[in-house]
Design goal:
- α2 crosses α3.
- The radius of gyration is 21 Å and the shape is elongated.
- The protein is mainly α.
- The chain has a domain of 149 residues: Tetracycline Repressor, domain 2.
- Helix content is 62%, strand content 0%.
- The longest helix has 25 residues.
- It has 9 helices and no strands.
- InterPro entries: Homeodomain-like_sf (IPR009057), HTH-type_TetR-like_transc_reg (IPR050109), HTH_TetR (IPR001647), Tet_transcr_reg_TetR-rel_C_sf (IPR036271), TetR_SbtR-like_C (IPR049445).
Length: 214
Amino acid sequence: MQTATPVQRRASRPRADALRNRERIVAAAREMFVEFGPDVPFDEIARRAGVGNATVYRNFPDRDALVREVVCSVMDRTSEDAERALAESGDAFEVLSRFAHAAADGRISALCPMASSTFDKHHPDLEAARERVERLVGEMMDRAKAAGQLRPDVEVGDLMIVVAQLSRPPAGVGCLSVDRFVHRHLQLFLDGLRAPARSTLPGSAVTMEELRQH
C-alpha cells in the first residue's frame, strides 16, 4: 500500500499592501502620540494613516499592542541611527551630536507619553530593542569620554531623556510650529555636554535603569 506524500504547505506571507498599511498605521500613531499622547482615538489614527478602522483593529487588536509596536519602531530607528553613527570615523563628539539630531528627527519623543501607559514594558521585543539602544548609545558616549570630549558626569539616560523632551512639542502646541526650534535648542544642550565641564551638575547621572523605574 502506497502512503501518500504529505503536501508541504508554504507559510503564508503578508501581502505587500497589508505590510504598507501596517507601516502607515504605525507611522501615523507615532506622530499622533507625539502630538496628543497615547490615548488618541483609533479612528483618528486610521484617518491620518488613510485606512479604515477595521484595518487598524486587524493589525492591532488593542491599544497596548499598538503602543508596544510604536515604542519598538522608535527604538529600532534609534538603534539604526546609532549604528550608522558608530560606523563613521572622525571626531567622537561630532558623531554623538549627529546621532542626537537624527534621534530627534526620528521622533524619539514618541516614547515620552508611554511612561504612564499600561502596556507590558517587559515584553521580550521591548527588552531586546531597549537593550540594543542602551548598548549602542553607551558605546558612542564612552568613545567621546575616552577622547576627553564628553563630560564624565553624564550617562545614557541624561542624553536620551533630554533629546526626547526637546523634540516633543509643549502641550497644546502643534508639532510643525516648534520643529524649527528643536535642533537649535538641542545644539545648545549638546554644547553643555562638552568637556571640560563649566559647572557641577546637581544630583547624579541618569541611567536607563533609573528611567525605567519611574
